[in-house]
Design brief:
mainly alpha, 109 residues
Length: 109
């Protein structure tokens, strides 16, 4: 077995790359080296989906991430499926990343 990231860590790096994070920021948050991150970025781009001739007219081949005029991106509803709204709940707040973050207001003042 070669030097590969575990599946969870690899998915985390790829997700952060898709969010547009820099290699340095991903490295500081995950502990994965920038060189490794760049390798997964190249692999992610080289494994893009292939579109075959004649498929651009199909409904499934269209870009699913096409926001409406108001900027929202509603879920697609297919024939025969009900329009069930997703239940959204607020999660717990994240703890401060650094010890000094709790004293941010005092430091700024």
């Amino acid at each position: 077995m070669g030097n590969y990231l575990k599946t969870l860590k690899r998915q985390q790096v790829i997700a952060l790359l898709e969010l547009g994070w820099t290699y340095r920021r991903i490295e500081s948050e995950t502990g994965v080296r920038r060189e490794t991150i760049s390798r997964y970025a190249r692999l992610r781009l080289s494994n893009a989906a292939k579109v075959f001739a004649g498929s651009e007219g199909s409904e499934l081949a269209r870009d699913p991430v096409e926001p409406d005029l108001d900027g929202s991106n509603p879920a697609k509803v297919f024939p025969g499926s009900g329009a069930n709204a997703a239940k959204v709940t607020a999660g717990p707040s994240l703890p401060a990343r650094k010890k000094a973050a709790t004293y941010h207001d005092a430091i700024v003042a």
